[in-house]
Every structure is written in structure tokens, then in C-alpha cells.
Amino acid sequence: MRKYSNYILLFPISITLMFLLSCGAGYNKYADQYYDEGLIFYEKMEYDRSIDSFTKVLEVEPYGKDNHLVYYNLGMAYFKNRQYDESIYQFTKALEIIPEKDNKRKFNILEWRGNAYQRNNDFDYAIKDYSDAIQLIPKHENIKSIYHNRAWIWLKKGNYDKAIEDFSSAISIDSEFDASYYGRAYVWYKKADFQRALIDAKESAKLSPANKKYDALLYEIKSSVFMQIAFPSSVPVTPD
Questions:
Q1: Domain that holds residue 81
Q2: pLDDT class for 225, splitting at 50, 70, 90?
Q3: pTM of the model
Q4: What spatial distance separates the first Cα and last Cα of the chain, rounded to whole Å?
Q5: Which of the four, 67, 135, 173, 192, has the lowest number of CB atoms within 10 Å?
Q6: Which residues have a Cβ under 8 Å from the Cβ of 30 and sit 6 or more positions away?
């Protein structure tokens, strides 16, 4: 079985790029075929068939030295199939056997297991995975998304200050990250800090004018600002 050089996370790219490395000695000859099928089915969004193919890789090569990649790909296929418990299990298996120094792949697994935990409303576990990923590679190319996702979890947990801190971290990495401006505007709005909410909401709408969700939040905030000016006693202000 060849060394699997790429994760499904890299799709869409040419399938042939996945198959550059030659087979290693002593591996079952069928493992490559099943693995290749799994990648192809995944790209076609046939996730059940992708899961079946990757599972067969593990059946014919249960102790393969690259099986952490198979577990990762299974985790991704289950995630796309919205089977988050199974996705978490596969990502955990990948982390258990991944080479210790392979930090880049560990980051990817932590990121996606965190995403699965978030979808499963296991917020504390998601926060831990996102935090571990940040600590592992603080300047990873996906780090802004980690901060952004963790910010929404803090918001759901009612910790507005930490949510603002993480949205701000994402914006400091990418000053045109419209989704984090929107998120931070929403938190300011929840805190009844309408002026700061208005600034961020305008920025998100400016960066992505076609996004109706951004426009809707901007309208709500403007309405609240008007009400605060016209009828100050009718708009409750939440202290920081």
C-alpha cells in the first residue's frame, strides 16, 4: 500500500496528485485499490461508498503504517454524511496512531474533530481541540478559521468577552474576514453595545454586500440605535 500523501481536505484537486508515491513492500495489493476508490467516491460526494472503501482498506491492512490517513479520511466522509459521533471516533483513532512529529496533520485532525464536536453540540470538547490546534501551530494557514469557530462556541456558551476576543484575533489575521466582522457585530449587539455593533456590521456588509444575513443584522442594529436615541428608556443596556 502506498504512502497516502494528501488528505481529502485538499479536494477539489486532480485525483492523480493523490497517487504519486509508489507502493511500499509488504503491503496488501488490494489496499491501494480500495483507497483510490474511497477518494474517488468522496470527490463524487458518494460518502457511503467512500466510507465502505476506506473501511475495506483497514480490513485488508489493519496495521498499515499509513492507516492514520485512512482513519482521517473516514472521519471526513462521516462528517460529510453528518454522522458526527462516528466522525469523532475516526478522527480520534487517527490521532492515536499518527507519527508524533507530524504536527501539520495533527492540526488538521484537531481542527476537523473540533468541527465535529461543534456540530454535535459538545462545546467543551470542541474548545479543547481548537485550543490544542492553536497551540500546536499558532501561525497555521487555517488559524483564523479556528479562532472564528471557537468564537461562536464562546457565544453559545454565553461568554461574550471571549467570543469578541476570538473574533478579533481572526480579524487581526485577515482584516477582510467578513464572517468574523459579522460575528463580532452580533456579539456587540447581544451586549447592547450598538455603536460598536454598527461599525462591525457595516464592515461585514461592505466586504460582502450580497450576503442577506449581514444586511439583516445591519438593519436590526440600525433600528436599535434609532430606538435608543428616540426612546432611551425602552432599550435595555446590558453592562459589560
A1: 1-98
A2: confident
A3: 0.83
A4: 58
A5: 135
A6: 56, 60
